[in-house]
Design brief:
The chain is of the alpha+beta class and about 180 residues long. The chain has a single domain (about 40-185), classed as tt1808, chain A. The protein is built from five helices and ten strands, in the order H-H-E-E-H-E-E-E-E-E-H-E-E-E-H. Strand 1 (about 30-35) and strand 2 (about 35-40) form a beta hairpin. The chain is globular, with a radius of gyration of 17 Å. Keywords: Endonuclease, Hydrolase, Nuclease. It holds the Pfam family Uma2. It comes from Microlunatus parietis.
Amino acid sequence: MTAHAQATWPRPGEPFTKAHLELLPDDGRRSELLDGVLIVSPTPTWLHQRALLNLMMLLHRDCPPELEVLPGPLNIDISEDSVLRPDLLVVRRDRLGEVHLAGMPDLVVEVLSPETHRFDLDLKRGRYEDAGCPNYWVVDPDAPSIVMWDMVDGRYREAGRAEGDTELCPTSPYHVVANPARLVD
């Protein structure tokens, strides 16, 4: 019997788990778990999607053959009660399983929406940091801006920040040239 068939809704006050998350309908909204709390984000705006598409094409163009650039939502299983679904990720091809990833992606990217600002910048960043994700980027299409963190000695350090037409040239997980304004053109 699968976990999907065994799962029932949690009683009031009980935490959500991965099995409960699988019971939710695919309604176009992003449902994630953070420490047993179900977080449902609204459908993204067109500007969010434009920034996401442009960043995906930028990353795909320079992606080395051992890595894969993928749009979300894809499950990143942090723990039994924390499953995050980033907007975009870069992962080693040998970590791609049939349904789940084996281990952490090399890069997780979130594109901010007004409703997800604190969640993406603080809570998710902290969970990815604790889980050992090597690189975390946050794009704000409204500013437009991008902030990049990379892992140093088990903690994130800011690796770059740019607004408008300022370019960033990160080398991890590989070299790209990112211009926030061009992501929303």
